[in-house]
Structure formats: C-alpha cells, structure tokens
## 1
Amino acid sequence: MILIDGKKIAAELREELRHEVVELKAKHNKVPGLTVILIGDMAPSQIYVRNKEKSANEVGLKSEVIRYPEAVEEKTVLDKIEELNKDERVSGILVQLPLPKHIDKQKVIETILPSKDVDGFHPMNVGNLSSGYESSVPCTPLGCYLMIKKIEPNLSGKKAVMIGRSNLNGKPMAQLLLKENCTVTITHSKTKDLKAECLEADIIVAAVGIPELVKADWVKKDAIVIDVGINKTENGIVGDVAFEEVSKVAKALTPVPGGVGPMTIACLLKNTIECFKRSLK
Ligand code: NAD
C-alpha cells in the first residue's frame, strides 16, 4: 500500500512555489500578497491562520492577518474587504470560516473580488469551475486532486465516489475529477447504500465528519482512498476512513493527520500565486 504522504508532497509543492515567487519578484519587482481576515478567537481558526501565515512567509509571499473581535459589525468587515479589493498589493483575500452568526457568510464571500478569491467560494469561481473555465479552486479538493494525480496521472474512465456533497469539498472535488474524465458519483447522508457505491469506486474521497465511517469491506482492492475528515475522538484525531483496516485493501491511502491537511495550506499559497499571475495579464 502506498501511504500518500501529504506532508512531504506539500513540502515539495511549497519549495516549487518558493522558487516561483523568487522568479516573479525578479521579473516584476513585486511579490504576491495574501490577506487573511480572522474574526473571533475560536482556537481551531487561530491555529489554521497561524499555520497559513507561517507557510506564506516561508514561500516568500507578503502575508497579513487582520483580526477582529467576535462582536465586529458586518459592515466593518465588508468595508475592509472592499478596501482590500482595491489594494493592488493584495493578490488574495481569505476570510477564515466559520463566522459569527450575525455575519452573513454568503455576503462576505460575494464581496470578495472573484479574481482575489483564493478560497474559490465566490459563485463566479464556482460557476467557472463547473463550466470548465479558469477559476480559483477550493484549496482542500485541489490538494486532494494533486495527490490523486501523483498516484495515478491518467484518471480517464476511472470511477470516483465522493462521500459528502459540501460546497467546500464534495462538489468541487467532483468537478475536478469530472474534468479528468472520471465517472463521478456524489453520495451524501441520504444515499441509500453507501457501501455498495463505494465498492464500485477506483477512487474514494471521504469528506463527511464521521470517525472511521469507511471500512475495509467498502473498498475495492487497489482503490485510491483520500481521507479529508478531521474528527476529534478519545483516541486523538482520526479521519473518516478506518485507516488500519483500509490500508490492507487500498492501493493508496492518505493518513490523518499528515495527509490532506498540509496540502490544503500549500494549495492556498498556490492559489494566491495564481491570482497574482492572472492580475498581471
Ligand atoms: P459538511 O458537514 O459541510 O458536509 C458533510 C457531508 O457529509 C454532507 O454533504 C453530508 O450529506 C455528508 N454526510 C453526512 N453523514 C453522512 C453519511 N452517514 N453518509 C454519507 N454522507 C454523509 O462537512 P465538510 O465541511 O465538507 O467537512 C467534512 C470533513 O472534512 C470534516 O471532518 C471536516 O473537519 C474535514 N475537513 C478537512 C479539511 C482538511 O484540510 N483536511 C478541510 C475541510 C474540512
């Protein structure tokens, strides 16, 4: 079984990006800039943002974090986004989710200029991705996609099953694999026989949030299994895939932690650089 080492692949990607930033700086005398807006003091968000900032600096991006207290008014945040939209030093804007209840998530997403939307959540980017045009692609599915391609460069004709249909994971993941000519099935909480669907799959991407949902007898021999799930349990952090048993059947599998997580952050940096390059056109 191939253990898909997301940490290592992400480190390689960051190194490639670091070189790219050096070249861009030499050519254009400026570097891509990433601005993250963080609202409130939820511990996981604080950790994500700290990791994002650290990785951005490592790659040579200009990064900035704007922090607001939990009670910040929606208008303050929207005004700041408008200001960042106009600021040409800022290539990418990310508002860390989840947001406090009094702030309208969709309004925030739609205020970010599509060309600076490094999360790929703006309806314009969602539409472009599903129409097969150039767009920012959500970082987690992009990271999963790059790992799958490392294992199997030619995905044409493969059967791929997404578990979960969120805008963040399942849906954009399905679009990426469809573009690669996979036959894609998106399953969700109302799917009748999830095990039977999974047993058909050459590729399974699990993004559910249920600890060790996917068992060995759900997985076809030699399938590629990508585990997006992050679940806190008594035994520590586990994914949506029963790692030990599935590792005996699958051709390749991502660990949790150390699989999808590091790739998500590396892809955020990649998206920031892509936004910068498109702004030069
Ligand atoms: P979500 O709650 O938005 O979506 C979960 C999806 O799972 C839904 O579409 C739902 O229909 C489906 N589902 C629920 N129960 C099911 C069942 N019994 N069978 C089949 N489908 C079922 O979640 P999300 O934001 O997509 O995140 C999913 C998981 O991925 C979470 O554990 C989250 O923490 C993790 N995550 C990890 C990363 C990363 O970088 N590694 C990034 C984002 C999310």
## 2
Amino acid sequence: MLPEFRSEPFIDFTRPENDAAMRAALSQAKAEMGKTYPLVIGGELIELKDTFLSVNPSRPADVLGYFANGTAAHADQAIAAASEAFKTWQYVPVEERARYLLRAAAAMRRRKFEFDAYMVLEAGKSWYEAEADTAEAIDFMEYYARQAVRIADQSHMMAPYPPEQLGYYNIPLGVGAIIPPWNFPNAIPVGLVTAAIVTGNTVVFKPAEQTPWIGYKLAELLWSVGLPKGVLNFLTGPGDVVGARMVVHPQTRFIGFTGSKQVGLWIHEHAAKQQPGQKWLKRTILEMGGKDAVLVDETANLEEAAQGIVAGAFGFQGQKCSAGSRAIIAEAVYDKVASRVVEIASQLKVGETDEGNHINMGPVVDPEAYEKIMDYIEIGKQEGELLLGGKPVETASKGYFIPPTIFGNVAWDARVAQEEIFGPVLALVKAKDFEDLLRIANSTEYGLTGALFSNERDRLERARREFHVGNLYLNRKCTGALVGIHPFGGFNMSGTDSKGGGPDYLLQFTQGKSVAEKL
Ligand code: NAD
C-alpha cells in the first residue's frame, strides 16, 4: 500500500538558496543549447538531416535545439514499434508498471530546478509558472500510479453469484497517439503519457513543435527509469504530417490529445473513420480550448475579485485553456472593479523570464501567436475601450512580448468576448444583474472553467447548478487546478471532459473485461 497522495509543494523562489539554485539550473540549461536531437523509436536513436529549430521566445536568436523533422513513414515505424512492445507490456503487473512512475516522479522531484529552467527558456514561463508545471507533472505520476493499482481489478465490486467466480478487470487498449500542446509542456505530456503506460498501453509521443526540448527531456527521464524499449516512442515533426498520420493509422487504438478546438475536431472526425485493416473503434480523449469567465456581483469582496481576475487573465501571458479572458461584472460595481483590475495589472512586470522571479510575464510563445494576438487587439479596439496595454513591448532581444491588455465596455457577443485569443487580452463586460451575469457566462460555445465572486448564498447555489463549466470556482480565481483536488476537463467545445487528475481518468485508457468461471 502506498501512502495517500499529496500535492507536490512549490519551490519558494524568494528564499536565497532557491534563487541561487534556479540561476545555476538556468546556466546549466543554457550550456546545453544548440544540440541536435533524434527520433527515438523502439529504443533506437534515429538522426535526421532535415531538422527544425526550437528557440527561446524571449530571445529568438537563441536556438535551444535542432529537432528531427519526422515524416509519415516515421510515424508508421513508431506505431509498429509500439505495437510490438504492447505484446509484452500489457501483461506486466500493474504494481510493477506503477513503480516506473513512482521512480520517475522521484527523479523529477530531484531535478525540479532543471525542468523549471527548460520551461523558462523554451516556453517563456515565469519561474512560478514553470514550477507549477513541474509540480503538476510530478503529481500526475504519483496520482496515476495509485489510481492504476486501484482500478486494475474491480472484481470485488461484483455481486456474489455462486458457484461462479467473478472477475472484472480494466485491461489496456493498445497503442496510443499522444499529442499535447506547448502551453504545459511538462505536465500535459507527462500526464497523458504516464496515464497511458501505467494502464498497460504503449505510446507514440509527439510533442508540440514549439516545445520539443522539454518533450525530449521528459521522455529521457522516463526512459532513464528503465521502461522497456518501444513502450514510449518519441517522434517530432509537423503536427499536420506526423500527428495526422498517428491519428489515422489503423494500428492506433486511441488518441490522447490536448490542444485547439480546430485540431481536436479534425481528430474527432478522422479517428471515427475505419481505415483498411483497422478492427476497432478508436477512443479519443480530446481536451480543447476555452473562453473562461470570471463573474463579479455587487455583493462580492471586490478586492479579492479584482486580484482573481488579474491572476486568471494574465498568468503565463493568458496562454492557458483555463485563463479568465472575460470578466463579467455587475453594473453597480463595474467602475470600481474595472479601475482596480487595471491598477493591479499595470503593476505586472513583463520581460525575459530568466532574469529572475520578479518578472511576472514573459513573451508569447511564437511569431504566429504574436500576430494572432495583435490582430485580436486591433479587433478589440473597435469593439471596446482600450484601458491598458495594446502595444507590444519592444526589446533589444526581439522577443514576442505583449503586455497585459484590457478592453472595457465590451459587448457580451463581441468577438473578443466570444473567441479564444490565447494571450494577455482581457475583455470586461458589464451585466445588468445576476441573471444577466449567468446568461453571458454561458453564452460561448466553450465550457471549461469559470469563477463567481459573490457573498449571496442563493447565487452561489445557482452557479453550482447553472454555470455550465467543467471546473467551477467560487470566490477564487479560475486557474490553477491541482491533481487529485480539482479534476480537470471541460464541457461543450472545450472537449470530452476527460477530467485529468481525477479518480476516473484512467478508465478512459482501459476496457473492462468481465470473466465468470463456474466452479
Ligand atoms: P494545437 O491544436 O495547434 O496543437 C496541439 C497539438 O496538435 C500539437 O502537438 C500539434 O503539433 C498537433 N497537431 C496539429 N495539427 C494536427 C493534426 N492535423 N493531426 C494531429 N495533430 C496535430 O494547439 P496548441 O497551439 O499547441 O495549444 C493551444 C490550445 O490548446 C488552446 O486552444 C488551449 O485552450 C488548448 N489547451 C487545452 C487544455 C485543456 O485541458 N482543455 C489544456 C491546454 C491547452
């Protein structure tokens, strides 16, 4: 029996020894910049001449690594290797599979500063955000190790039926295509990969094009604990080439995806089609975008609401699916809340996050994100009143810096209040009363996270019932879900509501087998 699961505590960077350790880890990570990384298929390293770069979005001239531009043929090869490994891995006892995760969690715990440093450099995370990402990766491994053992054999839940001896087992599915986004480049891939392998599946892991460096490092850590060859295969390359091939391959049994609505829908459609030689229905676990709202009524603690709005909107530059990119405020307190939100947000420090823990916001991830966000800022200028930001922050390093940007008096159905921007852009929307707050909150096609600040019991109860989101927070910010505490996943176009870090998550990576033997 393992001790009960507990969240990994965050490193306190205000302590001088931790500040020094983080600076040392950053120097060490910088010393590793510029290497070339292979594909890893069935344990074999495959170097390719054709590569793409991963750069530091704070200083795009800094090349972190060169990554193999895999092709559809490499995807086929990786799936074949995973299929071969599945023949034996599926029968490894679950306790033994769980121990690989526990050992990997321990290894990552010892190397937290190092993993944080990779994310500061490759994703532009602040130290605090990077640390939260690494802690979540560790939590996933600790939590899924325990859950896998708990769900593997559920025979005890069957009603007695003598003289039959009954078994009910959750057995693995087969080969999984693991396709994560770049915004939680440690936690999301670690969560998807380890959920799949601890339940007895084998995988092909394709990191997002923006964050292959951290992807390679976490795969290397998982290999270092002795996973048999072919259980975890590492494939880099364009999502619409290698990722797409992984999705349609007839030997792929399931797809674990987190990313945009557009790509999620594509996967949903193509996974549904039977390919020649395919003899199962593919399972899809799809977690997609959000347009999350923070609601404030006239009874709320307005200071806490304003702090919660700013933290939810601008943490990691607003590049979270859970980001509260809409603040919907009752008209009686709108002016007060709006001016306080602007005041708090204007104090956030934007810059190169490797400078220190005092930098709150780094760059957005790449030029495409930068262009898209700047386009939305132009749209916002037509749709609302620019209260803060709006102009890029120019630096000598030519990083992709966009400051916290706030639009006031935005109509509830304006584009900046309905579409996912995925950047540091917040729309303030005025509502007549509580009824209106709730109506506007539920007016988008998404349903991921949401928050309500109120001191009225009836309203808190109504929000519990009627605010239609997978993760609802009352009187706190709408970001920062913790494994085993806030199972995570959204409704509607936010995805399949898979509830990562929740008690039933692993069942999606298994199929139930009922066995009765007459004695
Ligand atoms: P994206 O959809 O562009 O890419 C996600 C992954 O899909 C990448 O690995 C990419 O290479 C791959 N891909 C692209 N085209 C593909 C195809 N045709 N077939 C297979 N794979 C393909 O998303 P992104 O920009 O990396 O991430 C941002 C998005 O992720 C946002 O919409 C955000 O809300 C969402 N997200 C959701 C959650 C959640 O839990 N709901 C968490 C984090 C991020």
## 3
Amino acid sequence: MAEKRKFQAIKGTRDLLPPETELWNRVEQTAREVFGGFGFGEIRLPIFEPTELFARAVGGETDIVSKEMYRFIDRSEKLERNPKIRNLGRFIEKVKHLLKSGEIPEVDATEVYLEHAEESWKKVETALLETAGPEHLLDDIDELLAYIGAMQLGPDLALRPEVTASVCRAYIEHGMHALAQPVKLYYMGPMFRRERPQKGRYRQFYQIGAEVLETVRKEVASGEWLVASAKDAATDAEVIEMVMAYFARLGLEGVQLDINSIGHSAPACRRGYVEKLKAALEKVKDKLGADSQRRIETNPLRVLDSKLESEQAIIEKLPRIGDHLCADCAKHHAEVKRQLELRGVAYQENWRLVRGLDYYMRTTFEITARGLGSQNAVCGGGRYDGLVELLGGPPTKGIGFAIGEDRVILSLQEAGKGGAAQGRDVYIAWMGEKTLATAIRAARDLRQAGFRVELPPVEQKFGKALGQADKLGARYALILGEDEVASGQWTVKTLADGTQGKYSEAGLLEFLRKQKS
Ligand code: HAM
C-alpha cells in the first residue's frame, strides 16, 4: 500500500473557504457593478504567457521580472519524454523539424546543442554499429544526453505576475484599435510572484484591475503623439475617481490616495532628472544601504522607494522630479489635479511615488488603507502611453490600476466589515416519513424564491434538528410534522428569539420575504 502522505498548500498560497468566500464574492460583485457603471467591460486572460511579454512590458531589470516570476519551459507534445537510446537519432531529427516549423523557439543555445548532439549521436551510432568497447560508448552516450538535456525544447513561459502586459497583448491580437476608442476593460483573478510571504503578501494573490486604452489617430501618430492632451488628464482623473468610488462603496476605511508625475522619458524631462538624481546620490553613496547603493546604477528612481529608516533624511534632501518636469508633463499633472478636485477626490502629492514597473510615464498613483501593517498599498496604477507600441501594436495611450484583493479583504475584516452573510435562511426540521414529500417541495419552492435552505437528508429528532439549525446559523426553522402537513398550517420558529408562528404555504413565503426586505 502507498505510504500515507499529508499534502499542504504550497508556501505563499492559500485556500479560501466559505463563509469568507462570500466576502470575496461581494468585493468582486461590487467591482463589476461600479466598473460597469463607468462603461468598462470584463476581459478574461490566460494565466500564463510568454516570459518575454512580461520582460518587455514590466522591464527585465525589475524585481518582478528578474527575481519573482514563476517560469517554466514548456515542451512540444510531439517529442517523446524519455527517448530510448535506439530512438535518439529519430528524436534529433524531430527536434530539427520542430525548430524549422517554429514549434520550438529558435534560441541560439538550442541550435548549438543540437549541432553537438548530432555529432555525438553519429559517434554513438557508429560505435553501436561497430560494437566498439562499451567504456568509450558510455562516455559518448552521456555526452549526447547532456546536450539533449540542455536544449530548450519548447517556449519559455511564465505565470502572470500582473496583467497590464496581457491586456495590451490581447488589445493588439484582437485589433481592438479598430473599436470605438477608448477601450475600457476590467479584469480579476490570480497573479503570481515569488515574494517573501507575510501578512498581505502572498505568492498567489488576487488582483482586480482596469485599463483604458486609446489608439492615437494616424495623422497625430505621425507627429509627436506622446504629447499630453487635456483629454488624457480627464481620463486619468476619471479612472482614479472610479477606484475611489469603488472603495467608498465597499466601506474601506482609512483610504488615502497618493499621486505623482514621473514625466516622460525625454532628456528635457525624466531622463535629465534621473541624471541629476544619480549625481546627487553618488555624493551621499557612503551613507546609503547596500540595496540603494546598487540601485544608483541599475535604477536610481527606485532609491526613492526605500523604507529604510536611516535613509529617510537623506532622501528628503534629494532633487525632486516635480521641479524637473518638461512644460508638457507639468501641465498634464496640474490638469489631473484640477480634474480630481472637480470630482471631489481628495489626494496627497507624493514626489517619491515612482512604482516598481518600467512602463509608467506621467501620472502614477497608489492607494493605502487601514489595518494592513507594512503591506498597506491596496491599489497601484498609472499612465503607460507607448506600451502597446513597445509590444508591437499601434501608437496607443494607456492608463490603469490594479487593486490587491487579498489586502482589501483583510482591511474590511480588520474593520469588522467582513461579516459573512447568514449561513442559511431556513432549516427544514421534518419528522415522520410521510412529511418528506412536503419537505422536499417546500425546500424546492423556497430555493426558487431565492432563500438558502438546508434540508436534512434523514429524519431527525426535534431537539437535534434545532441544534443543527443553530450550528449552521439558520435564521428560521420550518417545523414539519404530520400534524402540520395534515392541517396545511406550517410552524416557523425564529431562532434568534424563539418566537413561533403558523403559516399556510403561501403565507410562509410572504412572511420570509418581508423579513428579508
Ligand atoms: P502593482 O503595484 O505591482 O501594480 O500591484 C498592484 C497591487 O497588487 C498592489 O498595490 C497590491 O495591493 C497588490 N499586490 C502586489 N503584489 C502582491 C502580493 N505579493 N500579495 C498580495 N498583494 C499584492 C501592478 O500590478 C500593475 N499591473 C497595476 C497597473 C495596471 N498599472 C496600470 N495598470
């Protein structure tokens, strides 16, 4: 018999169970309603995509891509898993064929290993045919297997760490630039990042997000299409208004919106600022921690993100991006703020808000909420004009955000707003075999009328039935004995206060409906 083994959810992943899943459903349903009200439609995307998509969009040097992605090499199903030695020649031929047809990606290393493998195979084949000494043959086979093992025999894929990249990929793939612009999409689902798990931080976590994409008309595109327009600022503000309206509807507490502009990549804007920042950081390098020291070279903007206590006073004295924006980006930022004020959205400016993904430009924002400790960001987003183009599409503007659903749930629970709905509306305590048919009919009718009903599969003693109803959190017990069935007058007990009443079948429905409304 197989040895007993206990399986557990993998570190950083978790099971979501009822009744908590009711809260998850409520949070998701509210998003559908609020986002729908702003004209957004749902997009459902694959959980895995080519690694290269995220590397290009999010940035190869970012933590998300360089350290945290779950990557794997898929393998063509046309290739045998463990080819026998006598079939290796055919296996190599098949790899060559799949490379030619594009089913195996053309990776340099694979082509080199393939060449070596072919040579090794020739030696092995000759030795096999000539039946040379086994010692020498074994070495050749080992070499051959090593080459085969080193080949990338399928596409390099990754579990999605975020989906803005996927939304842009889908926008291009489905020619959405031809639809009425802008295209407004929302999504929800699991994301994967290999981070150190802690409260509010998981390796499989859930995001609810939205994106607005707008392809720029050709005649504008041929010119300076990245120039900000007043329309862009209004879109930024409306997207932020929408997420704030959503949080208000959920009753999330201690919500704070931080906004910033990180300009655009021109020398007269962000690039010039980053040079100045780098020079200033070089001067204080000795006082910075190892992470920040490294970032001076790799990504100086990220130093501003540091939470290290010892670095705070130094960072406060660094040059600020707001003082180095080009006129166009400065105008855009001012207009976003005016538009937010028009919409009654309270915000705080935070010049250190740079975000950890490479695709942003101009507006960036983050929202925090109460009850979350150090992982208190419940939403992050910003503008990403040019990302669709970077992924092979037409010149397109974009703005969006993603909400950390796990954190929203935690914050609601901490505030005592995570209360699950009643377990059941009605528990049917039926007694006597003759009442079963009536009990089944009552359960069916009540369920059709939208009530949650528990019908015990076997007859129970009265006391036990009421005890069970209580445990399940039922609000009412419908007591069906032979007398009730005969008289058509059913007894209903309100479990919270023990009061009882008698109702006809129709009267019962009416009573329950009134209690619910
Ligand atoms: P992000 O800031 O990487 O942005 O993630 C957005 C939110 O997802 C965070 O504010 C946080 O609430 C949640 N989150 C991130 N990592 C974890 C984790 N390990 N565990 C739990 N929650 C987490 C993005 O992903 C961008 N795609 C947002 C965006 C959309 N920008 C434009 N459009």
